[in-house]
Amino acid sequence: MRGSFEPREDARDARIPLVVRLPGSTAPGMVGPHPVSHIDLAPTVLEHLGVPVPDFLPGRGLAPALADPDHRVNEAVFVEFGRYEVDHDGFGGFQPMRGIHDGRHKLVVNLLSDDELYDLESDPGEMRNLITDPAHTRIRDGLHDRLLAWMNDTRDPFRGSCWERRPWRTDAREATWAYDGMTRQRPDDPGCQPRMLGYTTGLEMTETVRGT
Predict the structure, then answer these.
(1) Most buried among 26, 193, 209, 211, using CB within 10 Å?
(2) How confident is the model at residue 196, as a pLDDT?
(3) What local confidence, expressed as pLDDT, does residue 130 receive?
C-alpha cells in the first residue's frame, strides 16, 4: 500500500496491526518499531484536520511517528479490561485486568488471578511468565509503578491498594484509608460539564488533584 505506516498495536496481546495511509507523510512500506495505542487515533485525526485537541481527550497525536518511524510518541502504552459477563458463570463474571507495554516487556496485573510478565523480544509467544523471576525484579517493579501512576492519573474507577499489594511486590505500601493521600477529580471540561464540587465545602473545585 503506497504511503502506508504500520506501527505495533498496544501490548501486542490483541495482535491487531495499525495501518495508516497518508500520502505525503508516510513512506511506502514504512514500519514503526514503537508501541502506539488506539486512543492515539482521535488526536491524530484532529491534528491532521487542523482541529484543536481538547485537553480532556486522552492519547497523543502520531504525526511525528508517521513522518519518522524512529520517533517514539509513547514511552509505554496501557491496556485495561474489566470483563463482565452475565452468562458465563463458569469463568467468573468479573475479571479486571490492567497492563502496560513499553515496547519490549509487558506486565499484566490480573486482579483476581495470577499476574504476568513477558519479554516479548525473546519470547514473542508469551510462553515464559517472568513475574517471579529475580532477574527481572527491577523491570517488573518499574513497569508496575508506571501502571499504578497511570491508573491514578486517569481516574481509573477500580484503582486502589489492591493493585499495588500483589504477592510479588514485597515493598508495597500498607492498605490504609489514606493510601496515596490524594483525590483526583475530573479536569476542566469547558462547555461540556460543570466543574465538580468539593466534598467538604460544596464549592466548585479549584484544583483537580489535592491531598485528602
Answers:
(1) 26
(2) 78
(3) 98
- Cell numbers at 78, concatenated: 496501557
Domains with residue ranges and CATH for the chain: 4-67 (no CATH), 77-164 (3.30.1120.10), 183-212 (no CATH)
Report phi then psi at 178, rounded to 5: -75, -45
Can you list the residues of the chain whose pLDDT is less than 70? 1-15, 83-92, 187-192, 212
Distance CA 100, CA 34 (A): 14
Supply the pTM of this predicted model. 0.79
Position 190: which residue type?
P
Measure the CA–CA gap between 148 and 100, rounded to whole angstroms. Answer: 10
Backbone angles phi, psi at 163, to 5 degrees: -80, -25
Which pLDDT belongs to residue 27? Answer: 81
Q: Report which secondary-structure segment, H or E, holds 121.
A: none
Question: Strand, coil or helix: what is 157?
Answer: coil
User: Across 76-180, where does the E strand assignment appear?
Assistant: 77-84, 94-101, 105-110, 116-119
List beta partners, residue 116: 108
Question: Please, which residues have CB within 8 angstroms of residue 162's CB and are 6 or more apart in sequence?
Answer: 111, 175
